[in-house]
Each structure stands twice: as structure tokens, then as C-alpha cells.
Amino acid sequence: RAALPTSGGGRSCVEAGNMLFIGAISAFALGLANVCLERYAQKHPSSRLGRDMNDGCNRRLYHYVVPILSMGIGLALWLAALCCWQLDGQEQDWWFGPQRQFAATWAVGLGAGHYAQEIVANQWCGSVLFLHHVAAVAHAFCLQASSSWSGLLVSWSGVYEAGSLLLCLGYIGAVSRPVGHWAATLSSVMGMCLGLHGLVVHGFCEFNAAAWFSVIALVGLGIGRIQDGVDNLRRIQGQV
User: Fold this and answer.
1) Which residue, 171, 207, 196, 17, is CA-closest to 97?
2) Is the Cα dihedral 57, 62, 63, 68 positive or negative?
3) Confidence of residue 95 (pLDDT cuts 50, 70, 90)
4) Alpha carbon of 192 to those of 33, 157, 166, 211: distances in Å?
5) In 3-state terms, what secondary structure has residue 52?
6) What does the pLDDT read at residue 213?
7) Going by C-beta distance under 8 Å and a sequence separation of 6 or more, which residues neighbour residue 7?
């Protein structure tokens, strides 16, 4: 199926403006929440929020609250985009076409705001995770500007986020850590399979620079996540 052209620059500008607005509001609100949680944990170091998660990065429980909340909301928006895209009045192929879907715009705006404030307000674990956050912000803007594979790229990202959510839940003890690492690893494989599906069924038709960046970023991230997941599962197995 060939990608259909965008339906007017005016709507594209409105959508880009909406995403910037959502991203800015999300970054402010989530960053403020991170600061408040950190101050509370510092004042009450023996509280549950101040508990060390033993994740190798010296992060406390409060470091995980905002990411888990943000990913949960983002996944709900992604599911809404999958289930209700026809309600947005679009006749074109959203899966392989350009971005024209309100729930997806909210999802990528939230993602951009979340990772932007994480760079400033929260603690990351080394330069690799820092670069991940920077690339994630750029990827969110590229998702909005992509000329093709819109629904597929958002879903590819959503599958990754589902695995990351379970990984975070594993670190805080809501699920076992092996389950979290398995989820991150398998979700990465599933996401890569979505990319392979797009290549086989549709190819790289009508790709602009934003679409290429998103595909390259998702492939690179998927490989890194699989390697990290396998290494962590082997380490856990060796401790048993």
C-alpha cells in the first residue's frame, strides 16, 4: 500500500504546535513532580520513596515514580490511537501514511516532555542513558514529522515503552526483576519484527529524513536493549 500525501500544510503546523504545547506542559509538570518527590525523599530519607532500588545507578524509588506514570499514560494514548484512529475523521492509511491522529500527537508530545525533563530533573545512569534521553526527544519530534509509517513507528515505540514499563516495575519490586528484563528484551524483539513487517509489506516509500531517523534510532535502540537484557538475565542466572 502506498503512503498517501499529507492533507495540507496548515493542519501539519497545527499538529506540530499542539505537540510542542503538550511537550512543554508535560516537561514542566513532570519535572515539577520529580523535584517535589526528590525534596520529600531528602527530608524523609527513611521513607519508602527514599529506598535504594539497588539498580546499579544509586537510584531511589522516587526516581521511578514519574517515569512509570508517564509511560502508563503514554501507553494508554497509544492504545487509544490504535483503537480509535477512524474517529479522528481520517480516510488515509494511518499505519503506513503520515501522522494525522490526535491521540498519537498527545503520546509523542508526552514522550518528548518526559525525556526532556528527565535530562534535567532526574538522575540517569551514565552517558549511554543520557544519550538515550536526548535521542528519545529527537525521535518524538521525528515521529510527528514522519512522512510515512506513522502508525507503525508509533506502535514500534509503544511496544518498547511497554517493555520499559515492566522493566521499571521490576526494579521497584512490583514484578520480579527477571520478568522485567525478559519484558524489555522480548518487547525489543517484537518491535524489530514490526519494522521488518513494514519493510516487507510497504518498503521505504515516501520516507523523509524524520522517518529515516526514527527507523535508525529504533533499530539501534532495539539492538542495545536486547544486548542489555540478555546480559542482565545472564547475571541474574549466575547469582542463583
Assistant:
1) 207
2) positive
3) confident
4) 33, 10, 18, 15
5) strand
6) 96
7) 92, 100
